[in-house]
Amino acid sequence: MARIASLARSRYSALALLRGAIGGHRHWGRAWRAAEPRRAYDAVIIGGGGHGLATAYYLAAVHGVTRVAVVEKGWIGGGNTARNTTIVRSNYRQPALQRLLDHSLTLWHGLSDTLNYNVMFSPRGALFLGHSDADMTRLAERGDALRAMGIDAELMSRDAVARLLPLLDMDRNARWPIEGGLIQMRGGSARHDAVAWGFARAADALGVDIIENCEVTGFLRDGARVTGVRTTRGDIGAGRTGICVAGNSGHVAGLAGLRLPIESHTLQAWVTEPVKPMVDTVVMSQSLHCYFSQSDKGGIVGGGDPDFFPSYAQRGQPLRLEDSIAQAIALMPALARLRMVRSWAGVTDMSFDGSPIIGETPLPGLYLNGGWCYGGFKATPGSGHLYAHLLATGESHPIAAPFALGRFATGRTIDEAGAGPKPQDR
Amino acid sequence: MLLIPCPHCGPRAQEEFAYERSLDSVVRLDDTPDAAITALYARANLRGEDDEIWSHAHGCRQWLRLRRDRVSHAISLVEAL
Pick from A264, A313, A317: which is nearest to B45 by CB? Predict the structure, then answer.
């Protein structure tokens, strides 16, 4: 048993692969232990998705806090980590979001080396399409603002877009004519499962307990203070408790009697059969709300709008699926020839200003990381890094400070879409 | 897809309707600032049955109250507001 554990923690390398080949690859151990819950930890993180596991990893790696448990109701990476479109970028409009997501993007670069796990991060460029003069003006302004923040952004002419993606419909009479674009070359995509597994393995190696099949059913309280969690596998004490369950934040915070500026909505995605490389970058249109890219396996992965009404069901409405597919096909008619092999839905925390919430709650000892709307995957390492800072020190990192829960009462919302407090309008 | 029994028009496809907000989130003219903030931003967001305001936007354009299960999507009550 001890031998298996030590091998599990050995480094992955070409040499280890070669050694494995000689022995028929029978020596590979578990990537992380199946931990039994202990009675108490310095920090308990609720939610074993990418964000929760990243939080645990950075708590141990950056802050030296290793008495940490991640409790997960299902299995690691079985929730929204497995249900997104794996797009990574930081070209947002609001400065606070630019800082937050560029912090994350900086961590994405080099993440595979940091974790000793190939997360297949592929900075292949993330392109916004412009469909009109007004769109191009908006994209030019966005690019200027981004460069002023030190974030890469390149305005592309119509011809340059046509050269980059020859399969786009560049006809002047196309349903949505393409006038140019704005590309972030540091952006791209990553392998979603590998992100969860990589963080889980790296956190486990530093002593973090990852406890699967362990659903939180309530909170341990000492007056107002939260002192741990009640779970289906017993009570677990915690110095600090961190909620990290985007999609279900409303439900879990509700167990503590809190009401959040969040509604849970369904967001769908789809993937086609795998084909040879045909889409070199991530293609997005914010005017339409459609985005697609090609996975390393070859499938075209895409998505669009959420379902516009609250739902915790991990299944979506055919209407919205049809919308996003119709948009993708209008932009790139060749996609019509591909068979869709799968579509799925995830439950997203739609916050009331479209931005995430990272901060303390009104209850001492209880912290919240949620409200990621449909943009959480790209933030995984940054979100974990900043949340770890909060859980280790009790203070928000300066980059995370604007995302406090209290901003809604004070009016300092970070409204990327300028849509006001209606989640379905984003 | 939901089939919503509009009390004015009968059962109609979901495409005709628009979700507005949950019923507990209506800001009233005489609300205190705290009550208004709560109504605007604090949601029970129940993983189960909740009351919602919808409009029959592409039909009779009336406001409706729906009691709907947010996991099974079953509608147990629809009435005119």
Answer: A264
